[in-house]
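Entry:
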Amino acid sequence: MALKIEKDHQRFRQIVKGKIRKDLRKFLTRGELLGKEGERMISIPVRGIELPHFRYGDNNDAGVGVGDGESGDPVDGQDGNMGPGGTQEGQHILEVEVSLDELADILGDELKLPRIKPKGQHSITSEKDKYSGIRTTGPESLRHFKRTFRAALKRQIMAGLYDPDFPIVVPIRRDQRYRSWKTVKKPQSNAVIIYMMDVSGSMGDEQKELVRLEAFWIDAWLRRNYEGIESRYIVHDVRAGEVDRQTFFRIREDGGTKISSAFHLCKQVIETNYDPNEWNIYIFHFSDGDNSSESDSRECCRMIKEVLLPKANMFGYCQVASAYGSGNFINVIHEHLDKLDGVITSRVNTKDDIYDSLKTFFGAGK
């Protein structure tokens, strides 16, 4: 019975995953999901799915679509007049909990994203004891009660000692079963994501919401590929500063924009904390493409090519649409760095573009 219930549960999970996969583009744009994130779990509202349950009674009750009528006859409310108020329950939206790892796997399958291969040879190897078997000797603290009981019951039945009317099962020494383990070495690659964002006056709440959604899914995919992930956040107008995650998505300044200030701070953060031989480094910059001068844009390209990219797995630039920004910085990157492997750009004008932007960033599996 327990095995059958487990199979039913797994089938239900597959139905849920199929529904999420079908509506993935829509889920990527739901900002309210970010507020439902728990301990590596996220609560997702899924329409059209009910929890399996028993319903008592016969099967002869009239249901939807049963009764007199001809094809084409209007239903209540479709003949120009308002129908009477409904008396039946409405369709409920089921909220299911899905782990972020499962969600990232669905994202990777649907976008056909290859698994990331960590750069460099360095990795931290951790040792972990894994209980993977059963043996007949061991300490009492590792005794497996169910296996012991099963062995004792089987022995008594085979010996004709089991009485169903007086079902007492007494294990003896040879019935005892204990968990056994082996030590496995697990490679643990380290990675750091450095997010940089323009917070000048031209970057409004709408632009920050696009950045927030994109950063959430970037984070989910990279955490699925690495055991250890750190995130750092840099904001800038004409000056740059490091902030925490909450401040990163809420702060807004009114000054101008000097993108190179963020790149210089990013360089300091990497050199101080993250040896490129030991860390996989991902750098993402979000902006509306407005910069203080053409000369600063060219300086940014020089820094990407000579300073940042040699230390990083990739440099991703995401330009969000703004009515106030010039939008020229992405063109400067294309002009100077178009053929440089590891520099990836995307445009996100609306929430619907996030789907394609993620595929652009990680389609190469860097």
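DSSP finds ten helices and ten strands in the chain.
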